[in-house]
Amino acid sequence: MINYDLQKIKAVVFDVDGVLSACTIQMDEKGEPVRTINIKDGYAMQLAVKHGIRLAIMTGGHNENVRFRYEYLGVKDIYINCSMKIRTWEEFLSRYDLREEEIIYVGDDIPDYEVMKRAGCPCCPKDACAEIKEIAAYVSDYAGGHGVARDILEQVMKAQGKWVLNEKAFGW
């Protein structure tokens, strides 16, 4: 269980590689990365969007397929090729007038460190690097790409009374 007041969470920001996709990436015939996705993560993400929880993606990756997948789920804020995540983080907060304590950031590796130090509730998958686990308020029982987003979003929505058994839970 996440040891944080999840009622005040207004946004959840995800890294992609190692969080929303597994730590290994296949390459297609052109050398482009082919990421895995978790269907249960996708369900939880689209449900969170329906309930007004702002979701964002911040990835250092360059693949536009990431944008296509998460736009399909209703995510509006997708930052591709985000090499300095702290700058993007500051822009995101300013754009939506959010306070850091209202945001969960889910990361797994050193490029996420600066943002995780600032996020109100930093979270990570169980296979995150040691430095990230040390600063995380919550380490999921799930590895990256294997349900960590579902785990975290389900806890947030349950705490806010938004999880299942209402008209928004059924259908896409």
Automatic annotation (TrEMBL):
EC supergroup of this enzyme? hydrolase
Q: Which SUPFAM superfamilies match?
A: HAD-like (SSF56784)
Q: What is its EC number?
A: 3.1.3.-
Determine the domain of life of the protein's source. Bacteria
Asked if the Swiss-Prot or TrEMBL record annotates the protein with the keyword Hydrolase, the reply is yes
Q: Which UniProt keywords apply?
A: Hydrolase, Magnesium, Metal-binding
The record's annotation in Pfam families points to: Hydrolase_3 (PF08282)
Q: Name one GO molecular function term.
A: N-acylneuraminate cytidylyltransferase activity
The cross-references to InterPro entries, in alphabetical order and at most eight, read: CMP-NeuNAc_synthase (IPR050793), HAD-like_sf (IPR036412), HAD-SF_hydro_IIIA (IPR006549), HAD_sf (IPR023214), KdsC_fam (IPR010023)
Positions annotated to bind substrate: 17
Keyword Methyltransferase attached: no
Q: Which cofactor does it need?
A: Mg(2+)
Q: What positions does the entry give for Mg(2+) binding?
A: 15, 108
PANTHER family hit by this protein: HAD SUPERFAMILY MEMBERS CMAS AND KDSC, N-ACYLNEURAMINATE CYTIDYLYLTRANSFERASE
As for family, the record states: Belongs to the KdsC family.
Description of how the protein assembles with itself and partners = Homotetramer.
Q: NCBIfam families attached here?
A: HAD-SF-IIIA, KdsC-phosphatas
Q: What is this protein called?
A: 3-deoxy-D-manno-octulosonate 8-phosphate phosphatase, YrbI family
Q: Which organism is it from?
A: Prevotella multiformis DSM 16608
